[in-house]
Amino acid sequence: MNKRDFLKDAILFFPAAATLQALASDASATADATATAGATPNDYDATRHWYGMGVDINKCIGCNRCVEACKAENDVPEEPFFFRTWIERYRIHENGETTVECISSKPRPPEQTEQAEPVDPTVVRTFFVPKLCNQCAHPPCVQVCPVGATFQTEDGVVLVNSQTCIGCRYCIQACPYGARYLNPRTRTADKCTFCYHRITEGLLPACVEVCPTEARIFGDLKGQADRLVRFHRLNKINVLKEDLNTEPKVLYANMDGEVR
Amino acid sequence: MSAIPESLLEQLGQQLQQVQGFIYPNEVETQWAILIVVYPYITGIVAGAFILASMVKVFNVVEVQPIYRLALLTALAFMLVAGMPLQLHLGHPERAYEIFMTPQPTSAMAMFGFVYLWYLLGILLIEIWFEYRAQMILMAREAKGLMKGVYGALSLFSRDLSPEALAFDKKASKFVTIIGIPSAFLLHGYVGFIFGSVKANPWWGSVLMPIVFLMSAIVSGIAMVMFIYILLSLLRNEKLDMVCLDKIGLFLLVAIIVDFSLEALDYIHRLYQSEESIGILTELVSAKLFTSLVVVQLLLGMLLPLVILVLVRTVRFNEELRKLLYFTSSLLILLGIFSMRWNVVIGGQLYSKSFRGLMAYKMEITGIESLAMALFLLALPFIFLAVLLWLLPPRWMERHAAQIPEEAYPAANLVGRT
Amino acid sequence: MKLPEQVTRLGVVIAVIAAIVLLLRFVILPESFFSAKPHQAAAVVREMAKPIHHAGVAACRECHEEQYQEKYGGAHRDIACENCHGPAAAHAADENAPKPPKPREREFCLNCHAFDSSRPNGFPQVDPQQHNPRKKCLTCHEAHDPVPPKVPRDCAGCHGRIARTKALSTHALIECTACHTVDERHFTDPRGALPTKPESREICGRCHTADATDPQASESVVDMATHGGIYVCWECHYAHLPEGSK
Questions:
Q1: Is CB count within 10 Å lower at the N or C end of chain A?
Q2: CB A194, CB A73: distance < 8 Å
Q3: Do A170 and B109 count as a contact with CB atoms less than 8 A apart?
Q4: For A49-260, CATH number?
Q5: What are A188's strand-pairing partners?
Q6: How would you classify the pairing of strands A216-220 and A51-56?
């Protein structure tokens, strides 16, 4: 190829490019408009909220209704390998040993409901702990997503864009709480969304709705008259894995030091 | 949306049965499986082979000149395969281009995509091009039909074979190699950083991880070139350059010593600091990783080759025995480094982040994320290398020296003896 | 310095590739292709539009005010309708949609009320094998206002873990009321009328002194004046299992 040919091609390139650009910017203008205009149906202003959840460990009875309601509300696979929320049982023995089991992934056999469970006198403390995505203010999962498919909304909820998620699973590795899983149907990362579709309509997340003992409460830390704000005031609050500096927004009251 | 594959549910059901202690329920699934073990193994070999080649160009270790081109082609062959396990592993491989379209700067994985591209296009291909340009021009002259066009295109229809041009090739090659060394460090160091930066997982999250990964990459790359060099000489029934082989052996020995020291430091440091995770991690090693870590990675993959390589340097063995010992140790090392990748990747997912339980990984035999696919991906670079060796024979110049007119191509300017 | 021919050729190739990439990135393709923000905004819209399956108590109340009022004053007042009746948004939206189920099996109530030692102290629980075995709970308990047909006399109904622990101890035959004074109202308004907790050593002294007159007096005696210094007994001794688990 000689210089003349090269220059000729180069010069022709620009008008062609300009035409394409003109066409493309029309298309993008439409796309941009839709993206922003559709972002706030019902005039919902995300910047006025900062959502969190309060969990009182003294109140959880381990009924698992929250797990069932979540699966029903969010189309989570029924199989015991995928959970957006789950319940753990802790048994702390007098010699300091702690045994933990996940009661949500082990279905209670029907016969067991007819049997009285014997009491173990070596157990000095025992309780249930509900777990879910902590909707961290400083989320490590968002930090590692290579394509920006998982992100934090302005109202503090971490969401996954299942249309751009490539399913690399890095976010699942980065979550210290085991809150994420790969949805086997969409093959994208999935996790608790605080029932974003409900809370933006003024409803409660499904797990909070069905909890019989109000072990879970949902609220807006930016709210003035808000249950979570009160919870935050009245209880000694703990969060999970504080040393990792993820700044979880699920606040635990009466959480034992053995809880991980 | 598609139905849940039955094979997945079966695998998870079995893995759930094998849980010991307590795990977060979502941890039952092994997120990064055998393909993600293969991937750092392959990129490691790329980096290591390149570092060995750079010994010639940058540090003027002339003894290793015979394998210079072989090392470069090995790096390229493995580099071409490196992206495949990643692509196959993705939940949505058709969306992989997004890493280049909307990369998140805070994500090591996203940045790695660019490092990979830079290394392939900016370093490896350009390095090989400068190294082989003269040969490609001459091969174009000799070839007929399609191959004439292929070599012509490969050399970008360059024609200049003057001494100045050839001298420039050498200088350019050296320059690219100089940039290439830190690029190779970046390439595999980044892979180590992808693991090392995960604070959620104490088996991975450590400052030493990128360094350890890099050193073991260098070890595996040198071992692979040594292995291929010996293998090729056996297959072609050709004489090996023993001075070259001994030198590679020396580099390998030094690399193993450094790698071993770093890994030992990592373990000693962990045990000494005795943080909360030490309980479950020691259980992980003794219950789940004993064979792959202590036996395969340490004893067979590092200590035994170390002893062999020291012996070879201290005792005067004859050539045949030395070749056999080098072959054996390189094979053991390649096995050991693969085991090391397994221990890091899979090992990090065999214990719960609650520090209270252990899980299992039941590798599938067939399918996408399977043993069969892993073996295929590990064999593929050898096939690519065979093609590259056919396309760009490393010792072509030597063999055709007689046919090249002296005035067109002064013998003194032959680049590369191999 | 004249550039060597091969460098110009290589340079041209690199320049062309770079030009194509740069043109695509900055000129031809729209900016939104290269930003995650519009995708994220669209994802938020999609997330908000996801179907709702649980209607919420307010929605149920619109048609079922009677049941709401029934529940209002009882022990189940804080339980959402959909806790027992399942997701009912479809039913709330369309009267002709399938009605939510009314769970009537015994297992359903036992899910919450069967004794489990990890449940918090004070939560009403039954021993399924002792408490009217095989009988449907609804036979005696109205689901929306589950007042027990008889006021339970047994503390174990709500304090099961303590009662079962005590049953293993030397204090097994001692009534709860021996140390805790319980007002009648506690059975119907547990948190409103709390039982007392012992406040002085003398309660333990009734049995654990040498000159104890109580019929259940113990053989392990101490001198109330000196034993334990200024502390009260239960600061060291767990009254429900004083000998420990061994």
A1: N
A2: no
A3: yes
A4: 3.30.70.20
A5: A183
A6: antiparallel
ipTM of the complex: 0.93
Cβ contact, residue pair B32, A173, below 8 Å = yes
CB A224 within 8 A of CB A232: no
pLDDT tens string, chain B, 418 residues long: the values are: 678 999 999 999 999 999 999 999 999 999 999 999 999 999 999 999 999 999 988 998 999 999 999 999 999 999 999 999 999 999 999 999 999 999 999 999 999 999 999 999 999 999 999 999 989 999 998 888 999 999 999 999 888 888 888 889 989 999 999 999 999 999 999 999 999 999 999 999 999 999 999 999 999 999 999 999 999 999 999 889 999 999 999 999 999 999 999 999 999 999 999 999 999 999 999 999 999 999 999 999 999 999 999 999 999 899 999 999 999 999 999 999 999 999 999 999 999 999 999 999 999 999 999 999 999 999 999 999 999 999 999 989 888 876 655 554 554 444 444 3
Tokens 């439409």 found at: A30
Q: Which residue has the tokens 């670079």?
A: B381
Chain C residue numbers with beta carbons less than 8 Å from the beta carbon of B126 are 10
Q: Which of C76, C117, C241 sits opposite A126 (nearest CB)?
A: C117
Pairing of β A250-253 and β A237-238 = antiparallel
Q: How many domains would you assign to chain B?
A: 1
List the single residue in C4, C35, C39 with the smallest CB-CB distance to B165. Answer: C4
Inter-chain contact C120–A59, Cβ cutoff 8 Å? yes
How would DSSP label each residue in C112-131?
Answer: HHB--TTSPTT---B-TTTS
Query: Residue C105 in 3-state DSSP?
Result: coil
Please tell me the distance in Å from C47's CA to the nearest CA on chain B.
16
Q: Rounded CA gap, C70 and C74, in Å?
A: 7
Amino acid at residue number B354: S
Chain B positions touching C34 (Cβ under 8 A) are 101-102
CB contact under 8 A, B165 and C13: no
Within a 10 A sphere around the Cβ of B207, how many other Cβ atoms?
Answer: 11
B372 in a structural domain = yes
Domain presence at residue B25: no
Structure token pair of residue A149: 């498919």
User: Cα C42–C47–C48 angle (5° rounding)?
Assistant: 100
User: What is the Cα–Cα distance from B250 to B239, expressed in whole angstroms?
Assistant: 20
Q: DSSP letter string over B85-96?
A: HHHHHSS-GGGT
Of C80, C129, C241, the CB nearest to A115: C129
Q: Which helix (H) or strand (E) holds B280?
A: helix B278-283
Q: What is the pTM of this model?
A: 0.91
Q: Answer whether residue B394 is part of any domain.
A: yes
CA distance B28 to B15: 6
> How far apart (Å, rounded) are the C-alpha atoms in residues B96 and B388?
27
Are B95 and A164 in contact (CB < 8 Å)?
yes
Domain ranges within chain A, ordered by starting residue = 49-260
> How many A/B residue pairs have CB atoms within 8 Å?
149
- Chains with ≥3 Cβ pairs under 8 A against A? B, C
Dihedral sign, Cα of residue C188, residue C191, residue C196, residue C197: positive
Residues of the domain holding B132: 36-197+368-418
Question: What is the spatial distance between Cα B8 and Cα B291, in angstroms, rounded to a whole number?
Answer: 27
CA distances from B172 to A60, B47, B59, B120, B166 (A): 70, 20, 15, 17, 10
β-pair partners for A252: A55, A238
Probe site for chain C from A108, A197, A217 (most C CB atoms < 10 A): A197
In-domain check, residue B137: yes
- Quote the CA–CA distance of B360 and B29 in Å, as a whole number: 9
SS3 C100: coil
What are the structure tokens assigned to A239, written together? 């969060």
Q: Does C127 touch chain A (CB under 8 A)?
A: yes
What is the CB-side half-sphere exposure of residue C199 using CA atoms within 13 A? 3
